[in-house]
Amino acid sequence: MTRPNPLLQPFDLFPYASVQVEDLLPAIEKIVEENRNALALIIERQADTPSWSGLVLAVEALDKRLEDTFYPLVPLAFTSDEWGSAVSECDAERRAYRAEKHQNQELFSAYQRLDPAELSDEQVLVLKRILRDFRLEGANISLSDQQQFASQEAAIVGLEGEFQEKLRAATDHLSKHITDVEVLAGVPAADLADMQHKAQARGLSGWLLTLDEPVCKTVLQYADSRDLRKELYLAYVTRASDQATGQSQHDNGPVLQALLRLRHEKARLLGFVDFAELSLQTKAAQSTAEVETFLSTLIARERPRLEREADQLRSFARQQGCDDLQPWDYEFYAQKLRQHEGRDPDQVLREYYSFETALSGLIGLVEQLYGISIEKVEADVWDTEVQVLQVVEAGDVLGHIYLDAFIRPGKPAWPWSLAMRNRHVDADGRVSLPIATLFGYYEPRGMQLEHKDLCKLFHEFHHCLHQVLMTNSNRRLNSIHELGHDLSEFAGKLLEQWCWSAQSLQSVSTHRTSGERASLAQVQCWLEARTTQRGLEKADDLKKALLDFELHRGYRNHRGIEQVVADVYARTQVLPLVSNDRFANGFDYMVTGYEAGFYCYLWAEEHATDVFARFKDQGIFDSRLGQAMRDELLAPGASRSMSASIQAFLDRAQSIVSAD
Fold first, then answer.
1. Beta 387-393 vs 373-377: how paired, if at all?
2. Is the pTM of this model over 0.70?
3. Which residues of the chain have pLDDT under 50?
């Protein structure tokens, strides 16, 4: 008897234990085929006199079935190459169906016949988003242009994959194996242990340095060997470029050039001035001029501090015997400046924050703020280390969060979150509960966290909680994917603010051996040290944001990549960088959905700082204020604008990029 495909059977939480790799593509192909047939019937019946339930909710049910089956497959892609290939094939099927649907003129016309005057406010918002998606995928252009659009889209997806593959290959190619620990003098013991485990994972003795950003950051901050810092720095800023020795086959320069050209042509085909303008159709900013003004104002505000800190760093380096300060020295001497009484506060306080205690404290914080409870439940998972958390309020389950916290071979080595299912109420009133996943990069050995690790944990957990706490009826308004990067990242940046509160950090501290809590004075000292020379980090973020945005406007102004880079560096960097810097070639945000949108992190941080000021005034653990934050900033999801939600919470106009 043929085994039934578990993906084609009804399920609530995904049946990972019973799914086999050969189930994936047949299930997605079957769902797509059934969707096509059902969609044809919907169009036939709804073309002339469409209704909300007969058209919108009926099509939403088709989309929901496909997406609710596909997105839980994503974690499986990191378990083996075989699973990864199967998930990629499923994604290609999903993308093809989505593109086909959005270029269906009969369906587009049916949506346009719906009368907004007969719809509720929420329904009007959903309809606007549906029509927007149709237009952004070429429904408004001629048939011949649609063919060109489809060809461009396929080429763009291919180039994005090529960019990532070349970057991965370049990063792997330039790893450095070290057998003499003296070469790594100055590197903290915990980081040495991580490097040793990386070597062991490849069957090597000693220590392995990769070009992953956390490893490079650690070496640049702590390694006493200037030669090692220089070697790793130059390898990092020239990776995937023609400036990297023996890597011509991994050069992303031509790929990036072609990608920017195709994105520009796509934007022009859809009627936009450039790709930057196209990208704003899903963001809070109303124009490229508004983004330009925001970034220019931020640069002008930060410039005096950057120059002041640069002078301080040069002076300190000279006192330490370094008269020719170079880019590979900046982080090293900045870290020494942060030391207090001969000790590094970052390493001292690291002893107080294990992953387990930080997670427990984080959960306690959001439970107090939002009046919810979060408990671990048993469910099928894709790896034995994955936990499933259930979010409950007054006995009612609100949704689930999968916590895939620990790094393992094949899994991306950075933190991120995924919306796997959105809250939705169907035509019969049945409610689908939301599901999100947090992917961490922590070592499964009682890892002790630095401040940046705490910030990332709080950030990504709030993304997941945001997914669960949105309360609209329609799934389109209840997804972190639908929020736009600015509103989505605002939620992440908002909970990060508690990581900059000494009172908050003290509350989640537990020494790894004594079990004692850190003193408030210790935490305050540590946070003060963290703000010392923070301009280096801010200058880097400004560089990334402006470079990303300007590269996607470069074709409008007929500027080449190198000219854009030179202009951006002149505006954002007060400490010189090396002449052969090719950072753009390895800037993965250019191909991971954030293109022309990295500025959203800065935009979100400015708004989050403004909002958190109210907590600093009224109490960072104030549950009434937390409930207001939940009601006004999280629950509305995509049902209203970011500015409207923030203004409702603050009861005043926003105040961003103000003077320090």
1. antiparallel
2. yes
3. 658-660
